Amino acid sequence: MKPDDPLLRILACPLDKGPLHLLTADDGEGEVLYNPRLRRRYPVVDGVPQLLPSSGEQVPEEEHERLLARAAGAPGTAP
């Protein structure tokens, strides 16, 4: 996915239906869509968001802080 992809405006978390942040790879983990409200991340595999509830992964507090910092500096994040 690209940060300016129009699809990002309509993608939502499957659990709370809120917006997601696109975080691009910076440390080998690949692209992810992140929901900071629920502290869940969803993988993007070959450009396809995996947005089934079972695809999401809960992140610990330390990881949440790191992902929030990445989201704050990422140009393609949803509002």
Biggest beta-sheet profile = 5 strands, antiparallel
Look at the structure and give the mean pLDDT.
86
Order of helices and strands: EEEEEH
Shape: globular
Individual helix count: 1
* Unreliable stretches covering 5 or more consecutive residues: none
**What's the count of strands?**
5
Q: What gap, in angstroms, lies between the N and C termini?
A: 17 Å
Helix content: 10-25%
Beta-strand proportion: 15-25%
The computed structural class is alpha+beta
The quaternary state of the protein chains shown equals: single chain
Backbone CA Rg: 11 Å
Task: Explain what you see.
The protein is α+β, with helices and mostly antiparallel strands. Helix content is 16%, strand content 22%. It contains one helix and five strands. Strands 1, 2, 3, 4 and 5 form a five-stranded antiparallel beta sheet that branches. β1 and β2 form a beta hairpin. It is globular and about 30 Å long. The two termini are 17 Å apart.
Layout of helices and strands, plus pairs?
Elements lengths: L20 E3 L8 E4 L4 E6 L2 E2 L7 E2 L2 H13 L6
Antiparallel strand pairs: 1-2, 2-3, 3-4, 3-5
Offer a concise description of the structure.
With 79 residues, this protein is an alpha+beta fold.
Key descriptive features of the protein:
single chain; 79 residues; alpha+beta; 5-stranded antiparallel beta sheet; 5 strands
